[in-house]
Specification:
Rossmann fold, eight-stranded mixed sheet, alpha/beta, Immunoglobulin-like, about 400 residues
């Protein structure tokens, strides 16, 4: 099985690239499922057909599903949510607010991700047009935080659920029923399965999508850093909607100049991660024919299921006194580099034979609470050290 995520800032075109990838996979003989939790139903628009909440056959070897995340939470985890709401209501919290508080961070998005486990044995490839944000990625670590002993403990508690009801007046909160405990066990086990799939670098890849513009690239840098911290393999970066050389109107000269500059920045930032480029199409990309064109421009004759890169471009390592961030700097030919902290980012200035290169790197949360100690170049890599404050 192969699982491929596409993520990027809104408007970057990740939905079209997801559809194009799924289409090309199906054409190469993979039984493919395209999943989306976008409430705008973008995959329905892209394929110009209705896609429902159960797998819909688009063509040979290609199905698509529009995950209704709110329904997933209600139908599959409603028992747990209702119990949490009852706990909050017992403390005098308004019911509407209690339902808001009872929702896990990014729970609707996370519920869509859990569908991967449901379909993992049914398809050769699953392509997801979703956004695996940092908050969502934290949820997959919940089984690790709880520990393997937790499900066993919950199973031991089940027979005493009725006894716990007697203690409700003393505790002041509702006791969980047998059903709630059983659903908790089931959820933890599914989360563990999802975590194992996402962290298997032979199975899962995250692909980053950005437009050649400042905000889009900054968003991608943050996602790239988070993916490395959570040990999710990123195997490709795609710069989408590039103005082609055939556009000669002087009105677009500044746009083209800026895009060229941002493309160079992306190559420096994401090295050694491979970067693919897709032009801006003259019309909205809809239908099998145009999606097939995008797929060929993106992959050529290559198999989209290929793992294009395996490893970490930027790595974050724990040290005795804090953390170390390692940034590949292949374009720096002289050992002259300046690193300065600006809020939650690092400003990196490298002096090379072709001039000054400046980049901004988002910091992981742990580093924000530490002091920048030093930085040094080692074999074309910039090692940046942070230490804990006394």
């Amino acid at each position: 099985m192969r699982v491929i995520f596409y993520t990027g800032k809104g408007g970057s075109g990740k939905s079209v690239l997801s559809c194009a990838t799924a289409l090309r996979l199906s054409e190469r003989g993979y039984d493919t499922l395209l999943m989306s939790s976008d409430p705008a139903h973008t995959i329905s628009d892209a394929f110009e057909c209705s896609v429902g909440s159960t797998p819909t056959r688009i063509k040979t070897n290609l199905s698509a599903v529009q995950v209704d995340a709110f329904r997933e939470v209600r139908d599959r985890y409603g028992v747990i949510q209702s119990y949490v709401v009852s706990v909050f209501r017992s403390r005098g919290i308004d019911e509407i607010l209690a339902y808001e508080l009872a929702s896990m961070p990014n729970m609707t998005e996370f519920a869509a991700m859990l569908k991967i486990v449901d379909f993992s044995d049914e398809y050769d490839a699953i392509v997801l047009d979703t956004v695996p944000s940092g908050e969502m990625l934290k949820n997959i670590y919940l089984p690790s935080l709880i520990g393997n002993f937790a499900p066993k403990l919950l199973r031991l508690i089940v027979p005493f659920a009725n006894i716990a009801k007697i203690a409700e007046p003393v505790m002041g909160i509702p006791a969980p029923s047998r059903e709630v405990i059983k659903e908790d066990i089931k959820l933890i086990e599914v989360m563990k399965e999802l975590r194992d799939i996402l962290m298997d670098r032979e199975v899962t890849s995250l692909r980053l999508v950005a437009n050649p513009e400042s905000f889009s690239l900054q968003n991608l840098k943050r996602t790239y850093m988070l993916a490395n911290i959570y040990n999710i393999n990123v195997d490709l970066a795609i710069i989408n909607k590039i103005l082609p050389d055939s556009v000669r109107d002087p009105y677009f000269d500044k746009w083209k100049s800026d895009q060229h500059r941002y493309l160079k920045e992306a190559e420096r930032t994401f090295y050694p991660l491979p970067i693919r480029k897709v032009r801006l199409y003259p019309s909205e990309v809809k239908g099998i024919k145009l999606l097939s064109e995008v797929a060929y421009e993106l992959f050529g004759d290559e198999d989209p299921a290929k793992i294009f890169f395996k490893g970490r471009g930027i790595s974050v390592n724990k040290t005795e006194s804090g953390i170390e961030i390692v940034v590949p700097m292949p374009f720096v030919s002289r050992d002259i580099c300046e690193v300065e902290r600006t809020g939650s980012e690092l400003s990196i200035i490298a002096h090379t034979d072709i001039g000054e290169i400046r980049n901004f790197l988002p910091l992981p949360t742990a580093a924000c609470m530490m002091r920048l100690e030093r930085a040094k170049m080692i074999d074309s890599e910039l090692h940046i050290y942070f230490v804990r404050e006394e």
